[in-house]
UniProtKB/TrEMBL annotation:
It comes from Aeromicrobium choanae. InterPro entries: AAA+_ATPase, ABC_transporter-like_ATP-bd, ABC_transporter-like_CS, P-loop_NTPase, Siderophore_ABC-ATPase. Residues 261-270 have a biased composition (Basic and acidic residues). This is Iron complex transport system ATP-binding protein. One of its GO terms (biological process) is iron ion transport. The keyword Ion transport applies.
Length: 280
């Protein structure tokens, strides 16, 4: 059964300062799924995410949200439906965690409706969901990379949107914190949210994604469930990495085993021979 798409692009082309990056893309983000965008550097992953979030105006084509061109929505209207966590968010120096997360309530406020108990509850729930309630009174400047990333996610959760777009949310994090962030994304998706993330680690992408979008040279070369679209040939063609694919022993999803180049192969049963003694 095909999962419907509230967010999609048709014939989308986009770029920066007259330099094209995306070329005539058609992509549909399945509703209620965890979609992961992968591709080599400069393939257009972040550009596609920005275009889907209305942070970048297409040069041609369109992005549709609930069947309507996204440009027709007001800014706050979009922000009540769709949350975006950019690649390198920056907070004002000295800002406390609770204040940053509270900024996620901005789309719900007006001149007549300022801070309310509902906003307070939303912030508390977002802090708890992201696992950072104990950090609420800490300065953002004092936090580790993993803590900061979870706080930014909490701010996005405070928006209470049904869609969350994350640009490289695991960059600069160690493996433990990467898994924390991805487990949180999976939990949000299981609770009914639509989650879209740009990831670099292919094995983690294949493990967590319900739906995979593979980009190369500004075009989509494959999209669908990882178990259906990922092949060794695809990985070598797109990422220039000869490999074998094995089923992940935990999830059964594709797992990449890069092939040795052959330049450093040796029989592990043979001892390493010492070099010649230096001349006296």
């Amino acid at each position: 059964m095909t999962v419907p798409a509230r967010l999609q692009a048709r014939g989308l082309s986009a770029g920066y300062d007259g330099r094209p990056v995306l070329a005539d893309l058609d992509v549909a983000i399945p509703d209620g799924c965890f979609t992961v965008l992968v591709g080599p550097n400069a393939s257009g992953k972040s550009t596609l995410l920005r275009a889907l979030a209305r942070m970048l105006v297409p040069t041609s084509g369109e992005v549709l949200l609930d069947g309507r061109p996204i440009g027709e929505y007001g800014s706050k209207e979009v922000a009540r439906i769709l949350g975006l966590l950019p690649q390198t968010p920056v907070a004002p120096s000295g800002l406390e965690v609770v204040d940053l997360v509270g900024r996620g309530r901005f789309p719900h406020q007006t001149w007549l409706r300022q801070w309310t108990r509902e906003d307070e509850r939303a912030v508390d729930e977002a802090l708890a969901r992201a696992g950072v309630s104990d950090l609420r009174d800490r300065s953002i400047d004092e936090l580790s990379g993993g803590q900061r990333q979870r706080v930014w996610i909490a701010m996005a959760l405070a928006q209470q949107t049904s869609m969350l777009l994350l640009d490289e949310p695991t960059t600069y994090l160690d493996l433990s914190h990467q898994l924390e962030v991805l487990d949180l994304c999976r939990s949000l998706q299981q609770d009914g949210s639509t989650v879209v993330a740009v990831l670099h680690d292919l094995n983690l992408a294949f493990r967590y994604a319900d739906h995979l979008v593979v980009l190369s040279g500004g075009r989509i070369v494959a999209q669908g469930p990882p178990t259906e679209v990922v092949t060794a040939e695809l990985v070598e063609d797109v990422f220039d990495v000869p490999c074998r694919l094995l089923p992940d022993p935990e999830t059964g999803t594709p797992m990449i085993i890069p092939r040795s180049s052959g330049h450093d192969r040796r029989d592990p049963r043979q001892p390493v021979r010492p070099g010649p003694d230096p001349a006296p």
